[in-house]
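Just curious: can you write a single protein's sequence together with how it folds?
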Amino acid sequence: MSRLAMEAGPAPKENYAVMTDEDIVARAQTGDTEAFDALVLRYQDRVYSYARRMLRDPETAAETAQDCFLRAYRYIGGFKGDSKFSTWFYTVVTSTCRNAAAYHGLRDRRRESPAPSGENDFSPDPLDRAPDSSFAPHALVERGDLRASIVRAIESLPEQHRQIIVLKDINEFSYEQIAGILKCRLGTVKSRIARARAALREKLEAAGVTGPECDER
């Protein structure tokens, strides 16, 4: 169980591990709380990691991650299947994180402050499993000793750059999915990703972290 405050309960009896998100959601929409618990178990670590990157405060991130699931539970009936569930859900997650940042004043207070490296945070982190084919710093993560530098570099980026890096290179959403999550044009997504990667590369090079050029996917 992750550090989320929400208790997902015992492991579901159904073999939800082999079911698609959409099949699980269909059950959850009928009021099957066990199905929703399965969604929590499937997404809780990724949602917490996303919130932590965006809010740069572990306690606030944990509270916000719980709010994300509470909002998803409340509004899951509105998911019509016009997109992937993950796209719909991360729209909820993104707006919840944005509201939390505004409420807690983190956007202004922490804009220029490097975030903690997270070395004492033992919650699973998608950065640990991110593939190295599309984003050069991920190849360096395997060397272990550079992970903290990479995390600090990502978290020191401006919010818009940090958000797009987390969505594309850590959570591996497609350009089209990100456009749906952020409610913007596909061309805007591609240009933001290019600028964010360039900004991150500059920070990594300034910190003495180097690696192969990243490829567009």
